[in-house]
Amino acid sequence: MRNAAKIQAQIAINAHLLSGRDSYRSAGVHQYLVHLLRHLRSVDGGIQFCALLGAEAVSPPSGVAMRRSRWDTARPAVRVIWEQMVQPQVLRRIGADLVHAPVFVGPLAAPCPVVITIHDLSFIRFPDLFRRGNRLYLTVMTRLSTRRARRLIAVSDHTASETARLLGVPRERIDVVYHGVDPSFRPLSADEVSSFRRRHRLPERFVLFVGTLEPRKNLARLIEAFARIYDGEVKLVLVGGRGWLYDDLFSTVQRLDIEDGVRFAGYVRSEELPLWYNAATVFAYPSLYEGFGMPVTEAQACGTPVLTSNCSSLPEAAGHGALLVDPYDVESIAAGLKQLLEDAALRETQRERGLAHARTFDWSRTAEETAQVYLRALS
């Protein structure tokens, strides 16, 4: 890494959201932390990394120093107190030269420079889709934190533009660092996929969604669109932990009388996700708003044809390897699903384009570019 050898720095990373629980908390942010820590340890130069952990957080990958608190920061209210009241003391104690807050909010009284990762600003753009307490905390503390931070990391160009526009942060203080795709997301053998289908009693053809069950994922419209093309054979499988405000999804399935066609598979461990992607005929991700959209690139890396939204960061995440639809228009989603399910040539084209596009995202590069942001913040 350029110039790293000239700097001896102790970087603390708030990793209290490393979750070992089988729930939605082990999804996006947890995976971001796991991959970032795993690859930062391989960055050349004079930077040392220390992961700050709560009592219940899983340990970071081997080779990363850690400092574990006895506070039960798996509880959000406790974590907020720890981050603002205790974390500054810990940073002084370990002599941190910089702290990375990987999820929106940094310690306002930090004794060293702060770098913050902004994943999206959905709590500002779509406030009605969040619980009131969560929305207020994220809105107030993210605004304060971004003013205090030395530099910000945005996970896409779209998120960088949103951050500058909605939070008033000068664009020159924001660095775009894309997520990577783990090598485990790849095309698997037909025998392996067939065995997986039998084990989970999956149909030969189905539409897959992967993500937390929450309003901005737009699952109610996806279910309505699927109902319009449901032929009794192709199924819709929704994989993901229950987040918040999801009860209407079950009543929507009942109202449309398609209980036989929709399956809620629940939370799935990350190690098993490549098999779900490989087994699917089409991957559908018509989210209303994303900061990046990791499931899109994961599905592409597995060779699965993708349908996703034509708004927010999703065209950026998908490149030319997906069929884009209007997520607010049920008919547009339904037409897109029908087109991909019926047109084998289109599926093959999207498969090839998606595989090529997914290869441009690499966690080693994510770590390298993140370390460069640390150096810019320290210089």
Q: Would you mind describing this structure in some detail?
A:
Helices cover 42% and strands 16% of the residues. It is α/β, with parallel strands linked by helices. The protein folds into two domains: 4-180 and 362-378, Rossmann fold; 190-358, Glycogen Phosphorylase B (Rossmann fold, 3-Layer(aba) Sandwich), CATH 3.40.50. Strands 3-2-1-4-5-6-7 form a seven-stranded parallel sheet, with helices on both faces. Helix 6 (190-200) crosses helix 9, helix 7 (219-229) runs parallel beside helix 8 (247-255) and helix 10 crosses helix 13. The protein is globular, with a radius of gyration of 21 Å. The two termini are 15 Å apart. The model is unreliable at 1-5 and 22-26 (pLDDT under 50).
Sequence-ordered SSE layout with sheet pairings:
Elements: E1 9-14, H1 28-40, E2 47-53, E3 65-68, H2 76-94, E4 98-101, E5 114-118, H3 122-125, H4 132-148, E6 151-154, H5 157-167, E7 174-176, H6 190-200, E8 206-210, H7 219-229, E9 235-239, H8 247-255, E10 262-266, H9 273-279, E11 282-285, H10 294-301, E12 306-309, H11 314-318, E13 323-325, H12 330-342, H13 344-358, H14 363-378
